Amino acid sequence: MFAHLRRLALGLLLALAQPLAAHEVLPSIGDFQQDGDTLAFDIRTNLEGFVAGIDLTLTADTNAAPEAASYDSLRALPPAALESRFRSFWPRMAPRVFVRIDGVDQPLTLLGVSVPEVGDVNLPRASTISFTAPVPAGAKTVQVGWAAPFGALVIRQNGVDKPYDGYLEAGAMSDPIALGGGDAMSPAQAFASYIPIGFDHIVPKGLDHILFVLGLFFLSTQLRPLLWQVSAFTIAHTVTLGLGALGYVAVPASIVEPVIAASIVFVAVENILTQGLSRWRPVVVFCFGLLHGLGFASVLGEIGLPEGNFFPALIGFNVGVELGQLAVITAAFLLVGLWFRKKPWYRARISVPASGAIALVGAWWFVERIMG
């Protein structure tokens, strides 16, 4: 039975060994502003996912989607070719993008498509689509949203005092937004709205962070070593998340992502070589936590923070990250620790094989991220 469990665990972990950072689904970011009798929208997004027909509610990683091959071929297209493909797709997309003014859906007119040059095909390409919607005379409010398969959407209002800034889950519509401004979130609303964003970045999207936390979990059957490690990791990534979000620290993803993979390998291999908490392990975990925090900051930079509520939103995001880590540890404890951690064979049959599988995945990611 235990041999079967080990094979199953290894198979599941190896199934995760894909270029996750390159294919992670990020929310689209939309800016809008009223210009006379029209609302002008600029949506920064990954056009390849739309054109390929990927349902972004069903996957956190485009590499796992049935349309992955089509998506990858689109990623390698030059700008003019991808723009042409998207313009052909727009008539099917437009009816599923909703600009509802005073309760009435408005027709959309595509103005332009801006596609960057092909860079690293292992990284998402952020293109921008621009469109307008008419504003009837005397209109007061607008609601914005789109169909769930297009994924999450960040909406930011410009050109008014106290502008709206909100994160919409896939398929959600915004609350009515005053066209004249005044709908900025309160600090409490900003804090609460960014908690699920932080949580979502760990569960289900942060598979590399999940494996790192599992590596901490499998070191020992005792609670104290886990608390020391998690505390060191939390303090470290909180520091660099804040500094990165404020713009004081910036490290290229080409450095951060391989080091995160290396951190997974380190903690997993040390689990195999030692049975307890060494005096240097919390220090090493702290150092790796600094790099993980920069990874969190990079994602938060993609999403953006509301100018008027920068710190409440930042704190809310960090709380969401901590809740995500706690969820991972709780799940591991309920599935494994609660039943087996007191058994004399726990280390040999569960901890060491699981750590070995985690190390293999981390090593694969490290090579893949170094090689690009």
TrEMBL record:
This is HupE/UreJ family protein. It comes from the Bacteria. The chain crosses the membrane at residues 255-273, 280-301, 313-338, 350-367. It comes from Paragemmobacter straminiformis. Residues 1-22 form the signal peptide. The keyword Membrane applies. Keywords: Membrane, Signal, Transmembrane, Transmembrane helix. Pfam families: HupE_UreJ_2 (PF13795).
